[in-house]
Give the backbone structure.
Amino acid sequence: MSQSDLLTTKAVAQLLRVHPKQVYRLLRRGLPAARVGDEWRFDRAAVLRWAGVREPGANAPAAEPSGVPPLIAANGDYAVELLLEHLRGSNAALLGFVQQDHAGAAALLAVGRVLVAGQHGGVDDPADPPGCKWARLHLVTREIGLATRAPSRKRLVAAVTGQRLASRPSTAGVRRSLDRALEQAGADLAGAYRGALELDSHRSVVLAVASGSADVGLTTHAWAGAAGLSFRALASESYELAIPVARLGDARVVALCELCQSGLFRRQLRDRFGYGVDRTGELRFSPA
């Protein structure tokens, strides 16, 4: 193969449907390439094999049935709501929404029932199903913690144990943050969660606290702020969108990636909700 047959960085970006800057990040993650002078050149077949992308027409995923919208399964994070708000206001194909926690969203993605799944990045990453490889689009860095109607100086164990706690289910990724914090503080987890309300969304958690149905709620800083509640941070984590690599060329996924990489979206995430956006729009691939 001659050098003229190799792809440029711009051509690889178009092939993988990512921003050209993402190609340089992918190089650090093992994207095969050869240095030619001051530039990189890429073998098309090697790039596709590395990314797990099939050539057009080769066992391509079936299109969604007519009238059935493509879906994003996630926990209702405020960043996801802003994402859907932007897509509704654009000419891009709409994404429907399915309320699911970390584990439930991964299960739906694994069997092809949704197009995108919200995931807690780097925490219990779900294994890629046989024959399928997932990419992960970094959405935000967010704070996980406790929301209360008034500021509290109680130690963590006292702030949770014996209180009316509005929690997420044990399958929700945010529960791992509270579990770790309580264990480090020497708390008995069974006692801490005794009598807790297990609610299916962050919205339900903050509404329970705001209405007085719960004394304290496990949620994110953004949701606590939206409900006018005090917030005590316990941990910071990345929140990502998992996408089948074979779907990266889908026009809806391309629109999703482009939106995440836009300056306006990043500024709104930072200014309106206080998220960390240094890596927003970054695409990573799971190990082969």
Observations:
- The first strand starts at residue 34 and ends at 36.
- The chain has a mean pLDDT of 83.
- The two ends are 26 Å apart (CA to CA).
- Residues 143-237 form a domain with the D-Maltodextrin-Binding Protein; domain 2 fold (CATH 3.40.190.10).
